[in-house]
Amino acid sequence: MLRTPPGGAGDGTAVPGERLMSIGTVLTQLHDEFPEVTISKIRFLEAEGLVEPRRTPSGYRKFSRADVERLAQVLRMQRDHYLPLKVIREHLDAVARGEQPQLPASGPQRDGAGPTGFDGTPGGVDNAAGAVGPQVTEAERPTAARVGRSELLAAAGVTGEELAEWQSYGLVTAAADGSYDAGAVTVARLVAELGRFGLEPRHLRAMRAAADREAGLVEQVVAPLRRHRNPQTRAHAEATAKELAGLSVRLHAALMETSLGVRIQ
């Protein structure tokens, strides 16, 4: 549940005299229900028009209680219903106008038109971050969502035998309880799409190894921050990790473009 800060309004609207919150305080407010949410995620949702915090003359974001509640609604709809951000925004705007819209049908779809991210955009591109190519960023994924084996098979449109082969090559991994996170769903869908071009799991092991090496480099940079006792410093570590990961993906795409002599997007 969200914590109500001293002086905050709980009626869903900003009121005169309400104590506004910094983005770090908002992160703390959301953490209990959404432990994986980050400052980068909040900034991304703002860039997508899901929330509009006030700004101080010096440019700092200031959030009202209504802003925090709206963020929580967005995160729940992503986590529980896999809805694209555009659909979430339209739904919440309709509610704000006093309408009573029905919640759209949920669930990741495989339409055969190529891999899509959990925001419903082709390739799962984080346009706000300027990513290039078919990447899916954390900001577009459901927060703390996990699915079972049958749900992953349905989302990726593959057979159990194919999934077992991917797991044997380390491309897709399950948790100890047999469930899969949103990242595993995305990987499964992309591996399936690559398979349409004749690329087999054994061909993709090099990509897995390269990703692990790049993740190790990022971890070296942020490890000291993650060990810090200050929660805001630890939150900064997560934001830094995501930024470094995004830059690494963009560099990889640029190098591929240079090697192939083509524009990916």
- The total count of strands amounts to 4
Q: What is the level-2 CATH architecture name of the largest domain?
A: Orthogonal Bundle
Rg:
20 Å
Query: What's the total helix number?
Result: 9
Q: What share of the residues lie within helices?
A: 40-55%
Order of strands in the sheet with most strands: 1-2
Give the number of domains.
2
Largest sheet entry = 2 strands, antiparallel
Low-confidence stretches: 1-13, 106-144
CATH class of the largest domain: Mainly Alpha
Q: What is the approximate shape?
A: globular
Give the N-to-C terminal Cα separation: 41 Å
Order of helices and strands: HHEEHHEHHEHHH
Task: Name the average pLDDT.
Answer: 77
Secondary structure class reads mainly alpha
Output the CATH topology of the largest domain: Multidrug-efflux Transporter Regulator, Chain: A, Domain 2
Our estimate of the beta-strand percent is: under 5%
Tell me what the structure shows.
Helix content is 51%, strand content 3%. The protein has 265 residues and is mainly alpha-helical. The chain folds into 2 domains: 1-106, Multidrug-efflux Transporter Regulator, Chain: A, Domain 2 (Orthogonal Bundle); 127-260, Multidrug-efflux Transporter Regulator, Chain: A, Domain 2, CATH 1.10.1660. The chain has a two-stranded antiparallel sheet. Strands 3-4 form a two-stranded antiparallel sheet. Helix 3 packs across helix 4 (85-96), helix 5 packs across helix 7 (182-195) and helix 8 runs antiparallel to helix 9. The longest helix is centred in the C-terminal third of the chain and has 30 residues, at 231-260. It is globular and about 60 Å long.
